[in-house]
Specification:
The first copy, chain A, is α/β, with parallel strands linked by helices and 234 residues long. The first copy, chain A, is 44% helix and 11% strand. A six-stranded parallel β-sheet of chain A has the order 3-2-1-4-5-6, with helices on both faces. The relative contact order of chain A is 0.17. The interface between A and B is medium-sized, with 19 and 19 residues.
Chain lengths: 234, 234
Amino acid sequence: MPLPKALFFDIFGSIVDWRGSIAREAEILLAPLGHKLDWPAFADAWRNEYQPGMEEVRSGAIPFSRLDVIHRRNLERILPRFALSALDEATRTNLNLAWHRLDGWPDSAPGFARLRKKFRLAPVSNGNISLMADLARRNGFIWDAILGAEVAGDYKPKPRVYLAACEAFGFAPGECMMVAAHAKDLKAAKACGLQTGFIARPNEHGPGKGETSPPEGVDFAAGDLLKLADALGA
Amino acid sequence: MPLPKALFFDIFGSIVDWRGSIAREAEILLAPLGHKLDWPAFADAWRNEYQPGMEEVRSGAIPFSRLDVIHRRNLERILPRFALSALDEATRTNLNLAWHRLDGWPDSAPGFARLRKKFRLAPVSNGNISLMADLARRNGFIWDAILGAEVAGDYKPKPRVYLAACEAFGFAPGECMMVAAHAKDLKAAKACGLQTGFIARPNEHGPGKGETSPPEGVDFAAGDLLKLADALGA
């Protein structure tokens, strides 16, 4: 199989450490207000609402809404559990933007820099365009375009999201590779005809809690983005 | 009025020299095949089909189609006039991609580099995403995202294109500035509530043939992108 022309990237967990970053951002905002939470547990609770929140769009129950909107709905749902129901509007708004302030894994920025010399790069994430643009600025990621859910008008793993990304670059699905640390994402991309690349993020959900084994039938598997660049000759 | 947070750019004519580049690319491809054309006249003829081609989408006569598709339809329309009806498919395809190989005006790349330190930047062009991505690679433009017609599903000067760009960045229209060398584009953006910046491209349509006077009511006017950066303190 010839090498792909474009690489598409899952972002949350695969490229950035959402758990550690959300825990940190929540503490920065809420600790000075006198709140004492299990910060990683707060991050986990928020993230646990992620798939159900998007499923409302995927199922057609609500029209497409950017992830910033879904994140805010999900935040409202978990605040009572953490005794945060009295949080003022400005703090809620700022807290919701914590998702725009996630840090990349150490290999992410140098990995992109190497891969971009050989391939067209784009995030194909469920995150919205402004969220991706903020992560790129914060972490020094240089991409060719921001593709994904907002451009497609639906959420992964719906086929439209992968296929819309291929179309936007003018490539056939087989000329594109989805790169992710999640088997579910890669299986959905493969079903659309894309090549697939697995990277391991063993600590995504906390120390030792992440996917480490590539799903069956993956075209490339690597420990991180730099090792994927090695494997792809970039 | 406070400075904008985001700058949106018209691309064809405002940032890149479509006329000189299309004339050059057409000659590179067609001269070796024995064709002798007035190359700038060929570029002008192709570009003259641009607004009528997009008007079919804007009016609802045809569904949204990427500019690559419109460019190809327009190419078919002008080939007979230049005795090129016998051109083979591969050459037509390659010729159509000449629009992905346009050169920036000399100030464009250094202007973007300065402006990006202070503002979020995106093309808001009628060109499609892959076309913009190719121009960015070729010319070393670094943008925060590619917005414009393909993301909005319609063509400028329809209001949706400007407003969808603001929404994608999560900014109010008044927090964004449209930058262009064309009064029509700026008037439409202003009607949507955006700030406006005029740059002069006096040779867009050939020596001495371009807009040099800013339209009434423009917020900033500058000779080129570097002078706009001066004016905006970037």
